[in-house]
Amino acid sequence: MKEQIEAYAKRLKLSWIREHYHEIKADNNYDYLLQLFEREIENREERKMNLLLKQAQLPKTGDQPFHWEHIQIPQGIDRDRILQGEFIHKKENLILYGGVGTGKTYLATLIGLNAIHRYGTKVKFFTLAALANKLIEANQNGSLPRLIKQLERLKLLILDELGYIPLHKKGAELLFQVIYKSLVITTNLQFGQWNHVFGNPILTEAVIDRLIHHSHLLLFNGESFRYKESLLQ
Q1: In contact, 130 and 158? CB cutoff 8 Å
Q2: Are residues 44 and 153 in the same domain?
Q3: Which of 14, 162, 201, 209 could be 9's S-S partner, Cβ–Cβ 3.0 to 4.6 Å?
Q4: DSSP 211
Q5: Residues 25 and 134 reside in one and the same domain
Q6: pTM for this one?
Q7: Same domain, 34 and 96
Q8: Quick check: is 63 in a domain?
């Protein structure tokens, strides 16, 4: 009988029940079944969450709190709406602009984590250069359509470090194909300097136009947190 129960649970893909059904203690059959199903659902939700976190490839944040005092937030959005990901559901973008080490990547990562934990959102984190290189490689080996489909299934794409490395011409052109969904972009360059990254005034103008059509610009002021921490240490 034990072997049959485990075999049926395996066929039905009830992995937690297959391994733990004998551990449940209950006063009646109804309570026993309820506990079985509750644990199975909890296990599936936990596995789903772990998979989403693994696929997102978000940077580690540590336990330090995030400070908002140095950030200028525009009208039409506030801290709660940013962290709760309301802009994602509206298919809007966030552009985080400021100097190096002022917390842009940290906030982008918190937004991604919250989106996963609150709603089970599919999120992916790339540096801009890394995604451009990945698109070029996929284009060269014939897997670009598959990669584009994977990116299309995302609800939030985080592009970090726009402005640090000029892009290859083909990479810049391919990136334009994926700038159409909810994005969080971190940059240390004003819009007028983005041509240094994309290398083509017409393409740069098209990218900016597509981004700012539905976007919120957050300005990060103040000293570099990393520089402050190095002084304290």
Answers
A1: no
A2: no
A3: 14
A4: H
A5: no
A6: 0.88
A7: no
A8: no
Q: Tell me, what DSSP letter sits at residue 193?
A: G
pLDDT at 223: 59
Banded pLDDT at 181 (limits 50, 70, 90): confident
Is position 137 within any domain?
yes
- The pLDDT of 6-27, averaged and rounded, is 90
CATH number, domain at 222? 3.40.50.300
Q: For residue 36, what are its two tokens?
A: 């079985």
**For residue 232, pLDDT beyond 60:** no
Distance CA 37, CA 127 (A): 41
Q: Domain range spanning residue 85?
A: 71-232
The residue among 69, 70, 96 whose CA lies nearest residue 221 is 70
Asked whether the predicted pLDDT for residue 229 surpasses 80, the reply is no
The CA distance from 181 to 211, in Å, is 9
Q: What is the pLDDT of residue 67?
A: 86
Quick one: 124 and 206 in the same domain?
Answer: yes
Count of residues in the chain:
233
The two beta strands, 156-162 and 183-187, are: parallel
Residues 41-75: tens digit of each pLDDT: 999 999 999 999 999 999 998 777 888 999 999 99
Measured distance CA(100)–CA(222) in Å, rounded: 10
Concatenating the DSSP letter of every residue in 128-186 gives: HHHHHHHHHHHHHHT-HHHHHHHHHT-SEEEEEEETSSPPPHHHHHHHGGGTTS-EEEE
| Residues 21 and 122 reside in one and the same domain | no
Q: Could you tell me which residues come within 8 angstroms of residue 169 by beta carbon, excluding any fewer than 6 positions away?
A: 199, 200
